[in-house]
Amino acid sequence: MPNLFKLCSYSVDESADVPGVIVEDIVYPLADVLRASNTDPGPLTAVQALANWAAVGARIRAWMKDGIEAAPGRPLAQMRLTAPLLYPRTIYCAGANYADHIIEMARASGDAVDADPRAALGQPWHFVRPSRSCVVGPDASIARPPGCAKLDWEVELAVVMGATARNVTAEQALESVAGYTISIDLSARDLSRRPQMAKGSPFHYDWLAHKGFEGSCPLGPWMVPVEEVDDPQRLSIKLAVNGRTMQDSNTSQMIFSVAEQIAHISMYTTLHPGDLVLTGTPAGVGNARGSFLQPGDELIASIERLGALRVSIK
């Protein structure tokens, strides 16, 4: 009896994207899975499933135990996967959450390096990214934004919320998580600042052009439920460009843990099912190397237990 599953979204023959359950490389429509367990969900999206994830996840596991033959499936190889969530409600993105990345970026810009990045930061730091325009799925082909010659890569562990979280402690935070997926945080480095504005001005930085452009948040290839990940702080995390490994680290190197980030965000706003928390990237980005993405480049981001996400630049 299989005991592992993944949540995905897919389309067949250019039809509308629908949520699915992947078991042993077979994709089953989530609606059929729920009907097999005597629940008729009606029209359903992955985000809607996450709104009642405790019950939905339990029904999926019951179906795997007793009735997997009751739902017709198709081989994963025949399916076109889309981003697992279409679309996340809100995307919270951590900045400066791996010490080695802070060091490489400081050196690239000629800034001083903090001896203790956690003490210097004091608390997690996040920005909010547009969802519908930014999120794309596996095998997407992404254009550089207008005026960008320095498009950069960042692989990140993405946390998928499965319950509301408000004023939770770090000890409570993971209870609200449904699962994990992979994200590539694409960054237009040369659009991040407006040179005509004084460096101390709040208008010197342009986060929309830097991080919020079309296709800037590849996501996928699926969501792995939290029960299948023993410890989100012990996962290898890598990214390769054209087959060359650029980033190779471990989530144990985060400055602020997944739980600490969720707790911090929940101090200011309610996290909802279907929200994403991108948790930062390790060293190895292009900006530190003076190397940037060009049309035709292929990126493969991989995280232990979560699979691999491939996209290309056009």
Automatic annotation (TrEMBL):
SUPFAM superfamilies: FAH
UniProt domain Fumarylacetoacetase-like C-terminal: residue ranges: 90-313
The keyword Cytoplasm belongs to this UniProt entry's keyword annotation: no
EC main group: lyase
Pfam families: FAA_hydrolase
GO MF annotations, alphabetized: metal ion binding; ureidoglycolate lyase activity
One GO term of the biological process aspect: small molecule metabolic process
Transmembrane domains' residue ranges: none
The UniProt record lists the keyword ATP-binding: no
PANTHER family documented for this protein: FUMARYLACETOACETATE HYDROLASE DOMAIN-CONTAINING PROTEIN 2A, FUMARYLACETOACETATE HYDROLASE DOMAIN-CONTAINING PROTEIN 2A-RELATED
Name of protein: Ureidoglycolate lyase
Organism: Pigmentiphaga humi
